[in-house]
Amino acid sequence: MTDAPVTDVPVTDAPVITAPAATWPAAVLAVVGAGPRATGVLERIAANAPELWDGRPLHIHLIDPHPPGPGRVWRHEQSPLLRMNSMAEDVTMFTDESSVIDGPVRPGPTLAEWAAQFSGGDVRFAPYAEPADPDVLGELRELTGTDFATRRAQSAYLDWVFRRTLTELPPYVTIEWHRTTATAVTGTPDGPQQVHLADSATPVEADLVLLTQGHLDAVPDAGHRKLTRFARRHGRFHLPPAFSSDVDLSALRPGETVILRGFGLAFVDLMVLLTEGRGGTYRTEADGSLTYLASGHEPVLYVGSRRGVPYHSKTRYQLQGPRPPLPRHFGPDAVDALLALGRPLDLRRDVWPLMAKEIGFAHYHELFHAHPERTALPWPEFLAAYDRLGWYSDEMTTLVARAVPDPADRLDFEALDRPLDGLAFATPDAFQEHLRDYIAQDVARREDSAHSADLGAFLALLSVYGQLPRLVDSGRLTARSLAEGLDGWWHGFFSFLASGPPGFRLRELLALSRAGVVRFLGAGLRVGTDEDSGTFTASSPTVPGHTVTATALIEAYLPGASLGRTEDPLLRGLHRAGALSEEVISDSTHTHRSGLLTVTTDGASHVVDPTLGGPHPRRIALGAPTNVRGVAAFARPRTNAPAFRQNDAAARALLRALSAGRGEDLDPTGAGPVTSWPPPGRVLSE
């Protein structure tokens, strides 16, 4: 792909207009939230408009206090120390040859390809403009495909994608940015919608409203509020779940003992902000290890979680063999077969064996093709047997043991999932040594291409995630299975394996551990309070009899989905008015309230309104707050990303609905009005 330079499109505090104002009435779309999800839909509107739009004016309002493109999470104004957890070559906002969509594929550069233009590359992507921040520009000039960019660099990329999208919109489409918060939406289902703004008495009036607010804050739940009251009563510090880049940590004193509950990406951010962010530095030793040089301003961090170990580090290599053809064992045909069983489905019993077999296939595909010297059977012979055997069968265990001599090359989900199960240490120091060794081995494995089978498994994890929505939408998973299996175990296991930090962050963690700035608590973490001393306590069966007391407690994880506690004023108001529905899955044995906003699964993603008994014809929602799970706003290239499929379907539905008469027609998909709601197992909840 080549791009000729075009006139830059500024993004300022003033409204952004991408085409001359029309003199005759326009169809109007209001988009609440202007981050990467909104950009993705706009890009798909630009791609699909030549087919689906008749050329009359279309005016789009973008409503967000944060800059269009990056939005809140990826805005430039955050610590330059914070980084992405994906390599630059693995980040894209564009469809490609793998995308199974109805609209046209429009390829574009990955973050790495886009950054290469600033180091003298031959291609300059339009609209070309060097980032104003000299530090970001310097980083982009040095960025390689296997680097983990800062979030500020990703912010610059997302800003460019947004500006490029503006240039690709047809001339009859205009965009206006309102740098404010949408506080409410009103209007009848058969008339225009009014989006009320925090800084104006005059609402924005639109034919359709698209909600793309992204990840949201939530008011602390009862348990966290109790801990906060304890902290205030005793002059201590408690931080409920929050977005790490937004929190104020200044109250934590140098040398203060702090318990952190959570060992995932939020912990990594907090670790960085409380150490290097307070002036500490790292020195690289002759053997490549790091030594932490403390500034004296750091607190002492005691960290534990359910597993008691950090997320696995991201791989830093490419496949050494051919890309595994996915899906094979858990694709549309497998989902069809599951649904044809005609009975309620349990994730662990019915679905997970197929998911595991899919992940195992990709793992062994890479092992046999890239490292055949470590296998004992020809690939065709192994595959023929593998295809016909169940994942948990004795025959499969025998096959893998015969074909893969080294146990380190075999895929053992149970050992991966709970690495500290059954282990107990006599002293805290003994556990520190054990976990440092565990972390060092993990980093070494994830940065050694000899273990590229792990990357094959990672790609299959992404494929599996992309197949799950249809199974969830069918209503066939039991309520308990959805609560404990999908939203509980599977989401945590996927994040643990696939959403970890870069390896260098774990090497920094090792240095902090050796310096005594970070101490490991163990698995099954138990946190309590002591009224007599006014302190928090933490203990773990990993080190029996050992209890840590602390004057500060940080919940080192993001707020969970909760419509009832959301801090987003628009969604909070609709929820209180009973005009949207929390996803509730119910059967004879269990009821699961997910906290997610219920939307239709027809591709249009209409908000389900209990006052109407079904979908609202003029309100649509995409992304993190909705019950379409696990759909990130940007993706890894060539993975048929679910987000891009959803963006395309939503954009086409929006264009159809708007072109049908300014939104009056409840037929956005061309399939007729929705006549049956809710699906089996769904309960409309006010």
TrEMBL record:
Domain FAD-dependent urate hydroxylase HpyO/Asp monooxygenase CreE-like FAD/NAD(P)-binding, residue spans: 30-215
UniProt biased composition (Pro residues): 676-686
Location of region: Disordered: 662-686
Signal peptide: none
InterPro entries given in the database record: HpyO/CreE_NAD-binding, L-asp_N-monooxygenase_NS-form
Protein known as: FAD-dependent urate hydroxylase HpyO/Asp monooxygenase CreE-like FAD/NAD(P)-binding domain-containing protein
